[in-house]
């Protein structure tokens, strides 16, 4: 278990290579997809929209890592709406980002949208989890299985990213998580805990420790990651709750990511 007061360490994960693995799988699955299939977690999006979004996000991130500064969003598209053409287009965007990340000094300062963890390593982590979450979307739209990629250690880091990175980001965007009492989140398979404590002057304080009497959400890391990203319902059988269910529900119904 992580020690009290420290945020979750990603030192055991090579997130550049984790990104490459996830992106390669996304490209393979896109080639076998129905590009018109709807994406349940992204209302109004087709599989084609999903892959265009992810490819352009990779290109945007690559520019940021190269320059260390904010960059305009990208708006490119595949030449044809055919699965294999779209897959090759996406693979090119992902390969460009992979090469940029591999060549970068990930300890260097770099802009990001959250204002926390401001080194280039942020983008290896962010693009890994962006790709994994959208792999879940692709699987839900087209009936694929991706659980082999959603390892406990990687999903634990994804949960940590939501709590450490996205809660501050969403507050800056005007979406304040509904949290009125301490809430502990615990992964049963990797035994990591985070307790969120409400603050009036900023996002919840996140500490890696349990707090007696706090409301509790627990489950395996993959189920918690899907729950926080709203890729699984609150009544998912892999997640359990202890404490005030109304308070917990209000937090989970908040806009926590994006």
TrEMBL record:
<dbReference type="InterPro" id="IPR034660">
    <property type="entry name" value="DinB/YfiT-like"/>
</dbReference>
<dbReference type="Pfam" id="PF11716">
    <property type="entry name" value="MDMPI_N"/>
</dbReference>
<keyword id="KW-0413">Isomerase</keyword>
<feature type="domain" description="MDMPI C-terminal">
    <location>
        <begin position="153"/>
        <end position="246"/>
    </location>
</feature>
<dbReference type="Pfam" id="PF07398">
    <property type="entry name" value="MDMPI_C"/>
</dbReference>
<dbReference type="InterPro" id="IPR017517">
    <property type="entry name" value="Maleyloyr_isom"/>
</dbReference>
<dbReference type="InterPro" id="IPR010872">
    <property type="entry name" value="MDMPI_C-term_domain"/>
</dbReference>
<feature type="domain" description="Mycothiol-dependent maleylpyruvate isomerase metal-binding">
    <location>
        <begin position="18"/>
        <end position="139"/>
    </location>
</feature>
<dbReference type="GO" id="GO:0016853">
    <property type="term" value="F:isomerase activity"/>
</dbReference>
<protein>
    <submittedName>
        <fullName>Maleylpyruvate isomerase family mycothiol-dependent enzyme</fullName>
    </submittedName>
</protein>
<dbReference type="InterPro" id="IPR024344">
    <property type="entry name" value="MDMPI_metal-binding"/>
</dbReference>
């Amino acid at each position: 278990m992580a020690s009290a007061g420290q945020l979750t360490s990603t030192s055991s994960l090579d997130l550049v290579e984790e990104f490459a693995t996830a992106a390669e799988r996304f490209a393979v699955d896109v080639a076998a997809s129905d590009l018109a299939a709807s994406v349940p977690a992204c209302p109004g999006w087709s599989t084609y929209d999903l892959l265009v979004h992810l490819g352009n996000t990779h290109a945007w991130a690559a520019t940021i890592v190269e320059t260390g500064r904010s960059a305009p969003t990208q708006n490119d598209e595949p030449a044809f709406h055919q699965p294999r053409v779209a897959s090759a287009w996406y693979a090119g965007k992902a390969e460009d980002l992979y090469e940029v990340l591999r060549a970068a000094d990930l300890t260097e300062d770099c802009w990001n949208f959250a204002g926390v963890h401001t080194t280039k390593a942020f983008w290896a982590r962010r693009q890994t989890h962006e790709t994994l979450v959208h792999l879940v979307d692709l699987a839900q739209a087209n009936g694929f299985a991706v659980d082999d990629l959603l390892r406990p250690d990687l999903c634990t880091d994804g949960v940590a990213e939501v709590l450490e990175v996205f809660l501050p980001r969403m507050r800056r965007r005007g979406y304040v998580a509904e949290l009125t009492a301490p809430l502990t989140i615990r992964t049963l398979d990797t035994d990591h805990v985070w307790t969120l404590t409400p603050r009036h002057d900023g996002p919840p304080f996140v500490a890696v420790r349990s707090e007696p009497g706090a409301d509790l959400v627990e489950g395996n890391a993959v189920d918690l990651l899907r729950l926080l990203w709203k890729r699984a319902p609150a009544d998912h059988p892999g997640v359990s709750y202890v404490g005030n269910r109304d308070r917990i529900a209000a937090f989970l119904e908040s806009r926590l990511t994006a």
